[in-house]
Amino acid sequence: MNWLFWKKDSSKKDKLLLNKVKEMEDKLTNLESTVSELNTSNKQMTRLQYKYNQEIKKALGRLNKRFEEQQKSEEQFSKLVNNIENYRSIIDNNIETLVGIIDEIDLIRQGLNEDEGNWSQILEKWTNKLLELLKKQDIYEIDLLGRQFDPRVAEAISTLSKKEIEQEMKGRGSIYKNYDIVEVLKRGYRNSSGDLIRKASVITFKEENDE
Q1: What is the pLDDT of residues 30-77, one digit of tens each?
Q2: Among 204, 210, 211, 199, which residue's Cα sits nearest to residue 156?
Q3: Residue after which a domain boundary falls, among 137, 163, 178
Q4: What is the model's pLDDT at position 191?
Q5: CA angle at 155 for the pair 165 and 172, rounded to the nearest 5°
Q6: What was the pLDDT predicted at 181?
Q7: Of 75, 107, 137, at which residue does a domain stop?
C-alpha cells in the first residue's frame, strides 16, 4: 500500500519535473531566437553604421576637396589681383614718363624763337606721337586753348591783358573774351570716363577794366 502511494507520488514528481524541463527548453528556445534576432539586428546595424560612416567620409572628402579648390581659387585670384596691380603700376609709371616728356618738349618749344620754326614742327610731331601713345592707355588731352577758364580742370598761373596779348601774339587780343585761356603751359589730361588725371596750367585773358 505504501509502495503504491510512493510510486504514485513519484510519477507526479516526474511529470512536474518534465514540465519544468519542457518550460526551460521553451525559454531556452525563445532566448536563442531572441539572441539570433539581436545578432541579425546587430549585423544590420553594423552594416548601416559602416555605410553611414562611409557616406560621412565621402561627404568630408568632398568638403575638403571643395575647401582646397576654394583655397586654390583664392590664391589664383590673389595672384591675378597682384598681377593687375603690378600691370597698373607699370602703366602708371609709363603714363607719368610720357606726360613728363611732353612737358619737357612743350617747355623747349615755348623757348624757341620764330626763326626756329622747323624745330618747333619736329617737336610738335614728337608730341603728337606721344599723345597717341597716351590715348592707347585711355588718357586724353583736355582741349582748353581759347576756351573759358574752368577751375575744375585747370589752374590759372597768370593773366594777360589785351595790350600784352597784342604785343606778344600780334593782334590776337581782340578774339578773346574775359577769362578765356590764351596759353596752355602744361597740358591737362582725363580718361574716357571723364575722370581728371591732371589739371592743366594755363594763362588767361583779363580785360583791363575788370575788377
Answers
A1: 655 665 665 666 566 566 666 766 777 777 777 777 767 777 767 776
A2: 204
A3: 137
A4: 93
A5: 15
A6: 94
A7: 137
For 96-198, where are the E strands, in sequence order? 140-141, 154-160, 181-186, 189-190, 196-198
6 pLDDT exceeds 50? no
Q: How far apart are the first and last CA of the chain?
A: 161
Q: Is the pLDDT of residue 114 over 90?
A: no
Q: Are residues 39 and 73 in the same domain?
A: yes
Give the pLDDT score at 95.
83
Is the domain of 208 the same as that of 167?
yes
Helix (H) or strand (E) holding 104: helix 2-110
Number of separate domains in the chain: 2
Q: Are residues 157 and 125 in the same domain?
A: no
- The answer to whether residues 121 and 132 belong to one domain is yes
Distance of CA 108 to the CA centre of its chain: 43
| SS3 at position 102 | helix
Range of the domain at 191: 140-211
* Residue 91 grid cell: 602703366
Asked if 50 and 146 sit in the same domain, the reply is no
E strands along the chain, which residues?
Answer: 140-141, 154-160, 181-186, 189-190, 196-198, 200-205
Distance CA 109, CA 119 (A): 8
Q: What is the pLDDT of residue 187?
A: 96
CATH number at 180 reads 2.30.22.10
**105 Cβ contact partners less than 8 Å away, ≥ 6 residues apart:** 123, 126, 127, 130
